[in-house]
Amino acid sequence: MSKTKKSPPQTKPTTAPAASAAQAPKRVVLAYSGGLDTSIILKWLQDEYGCEVVTFTADIGQGEEIEPARAKAVKMGIKPENIFIEDLREEFVRDFVFPMFRANALYEGEYLLGTSIARPLIAKRLVEIAKKTKADAISHGATGKGNDQVRFELGAYALMPNVKVIAPWREWDLLSREKLLAYADQHGIPVDFKKRKGGAPYSMDANLLHISYEGGILEDPNFSPEDNMWRLTVSPEKAPNKPQIIELTYKHGDVVAIDGKAMSPAEVLTHLNIVGGKHGIGRLDKVENRYVGMKSRGCYETPGGTILLTGHRAIESITLDREVLALKEDLMPRYARLIYNGYWFSPERELLQGLIDASQKTANGVVRLKLYKGTIMCIGRESLTDSLFDTKISTFDDDGGAYNQADAGGFIKLNALRMRIAGNLKAARAQKGRTTSSTAKKSTSTRAPAKAAKKSRTH
């Protein structure tokens, strides 16, 4: 008896992967800016997963009004109690930016990690809100090509191991601006005129530490961006012709006052951004290596952070032991990669942070910096309590016997011992080579006449 071939079941077309009712999330916390992309994601989550959406909007100093996100979320059907809008500027600088600057962290020797260091804070709050609202999933708007997807998700998994993560850019087929706009029109999502006409020629990300620019016309690494792209800094050519001197007061490696005025962490960075931007400080145009493997060109403005780095190196120069500084310098590239790649909550980063923070107990004092046309020069540093700079010993004048210069001879000779031994061995090998060569030449010269005589007899 032949079997009848059944037709495949008809299913409703969807851009989301199939999931059973038991697997589908009931409530999702979305990192929501109120912009076009996250507004589309909000609607997409409602349609494709049939879930309740909780929105989280963070103010980390991006310089934009965030309250309109509340009205947009309400318009999209989000319950008022499911809308979270928070000012995280102080927490951002105190618990993330300042600890990173204690390490003098630079990714690939240049990048001050402005975007990277903001992501673990957002991931942390996403998870905390998910727990508070009893949500079983979180969602973000990072693409499948970038670093942010890794940073958000590594942070979330570290803090909530079984959380479900929904990354629409890895699931849907809305992979072009035209498709996004068509989806927005279909579902009544407002699109401003600039977005509809093509928007900015590049993508921007801002927070209290920096602004980044990438994509669009900047994808040609040989393209020189126009001066009107920069938002935080004037060009060094247009900066004031008169330098400005500022004084930073450090306590345990963190700036606690500027020009004698006590400030909170966020106030410190806000003030330094204004001052540094005025003098054209902190621009960077860099091709970097993303964690996912590709190269990426980005332009960055980090005026306050650039000042912080210079000042911190200056206070460490007189308060930290030579080998402690050297150890920090050895560890810094590893520490910077951990942050860039999204491992803020990893045990190895936390272990390194403990070591770094311990080194900062003596990083106390005052640093004076001169800002002028894109440059920063340290013109003074002082620590009344922890300075290791001993004038009596380091002076070129009469030190009154504080340092016995005769001791240097033995110090140098002992440190040269291994090189002297190697040098003697090298000389002995060379001498042996010359002796062997000379013996070989003598042997050849004594045999030559006999050969000649033999040859003559054959003729």
Question: What's the topology here?
Answer:
Elements: E1 27-31, H1 36-49, E2 52-59, H2 68-75, E3 83-87, H3 89-102, H4 119-132, E4 137-139, H5 148-159, E5 164-166, H6 177-186, H7 193-196, E6 203-206, E7 211-214, E8 244-251, E9 254-258, E10 261-262, H8 265-278, E11 283-289, E12 295-301, H9 303-319, H10 322-340, H11 347-359, E13 365-372, E14 375-382, H12 391-394, H13 407-415, H14 417-458
Parallel strand pairs: 1-2, 1-4, 2-3, 4-5
Antiparallel strand pairs: 6-7, 7-12, 8-9, 8-13, 9-10, 11-12, 13-14
Helix pairs in contact: 3-8, 4-5, 8-9, 10-11
Count of runs of 4 or more consecutive helical residues: 14
Q: In angstroms, what is the radius of gyration?
A: 32 Å
Strand order of the largest sheet: 3-2-1-4-5
Helix content: 40-55%
Uncertain residue segments: 1-18
Which percent range describes the beta-strand content? 15-25%
Order of helices and strands: EHEHEHHEHEHHEEEEEHEEHHHEEHHH
CATH superfamily of the domain at 27-107 and 114-199: HUPs
Shape: globular
- Termini Cα gap: 106 Å
The helix-and-strand class reads alpha/beta
The description of the largest β-sheet is: 5 strands, parallel
